[in-house]
Amino acid sequence: MKINWFALNEIKPFDKPEEEKTPKIKEGWLNEAYVALGFNQKIKCFSMLPWEDKIYYVDEVGVLQEQIYPVNSPQWQEIWRDFLTAFVQHLEEKGWFDITYIAIDERPAETLASVLQLIKEHPNQEGNLLKVSCALNYQSFDHTLLEQIADLAIGQPHLGDQTVFRQWCEQRRTKGLPTSIYKLSCDVSL
How far apart are CA 25 and CA 99, in angstroms? Predict the structure, then answer.
């Protein structure tokens, strides 16, 4: 199987032949030139939870295909386990592991938990896990789950009680976990 990931309107292949256990991450989507230009504080890679669970790939004859892989399905787990194995190795080789985040847009807690579980299965050589950056648009916070998110942004309409939110942000800050607020331009609630 050959899976192609898309970035900047170019096909960036992630090869996984059936006979090969470890896929290869191809160069092009990020390289030393970008890092030299100053893109070296955070690299946010979207997303292990694609919209509508759709993954696009180019088949063996070069035709763009679309496949739905529901979160936690055996196929979803296989694809992302293979990817994380190769991705962690690639980041280590490039020296980018410590600045790279798996980024996730507004998704339900249960699907976010699935990604966090897969990431736990793929530590680097020193036993460290990829960091997660996440935007959330809901009010009920599972603090155990959110403690696993290194860089968190919460939509302004979903902050809940300001006193509780501020206390929680301070607790995260003492642990070195930044929390920010985002506002959609179409949201007139502020």
Answer: 18
